[in-house]
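Hello Y.,

Per our agreement to keep a running log of every chain we model this quarter, I'm adding this entry. I've kept the format consistent with earlier entries: sequence first, then predicted structure.
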Amino acid sequence: MEEPQRRIRAAYTASTITVYQAYSPEIGRPAAREGRFPNAWKRGRMTWIIKPL
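Predicted structure for the entry above:
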């Protein structure tokens, strides 16, 4: 069976959901090293997951 190229990774409890986001090395490495996103990261490119009503 082939591994899917894209997937949603998340952990959950009865009251919370934590969704994990993958970033390119250009963004991920500086973010992990410095504890903040570098200038290459753009807030407008974020995807929001909203609980349905």
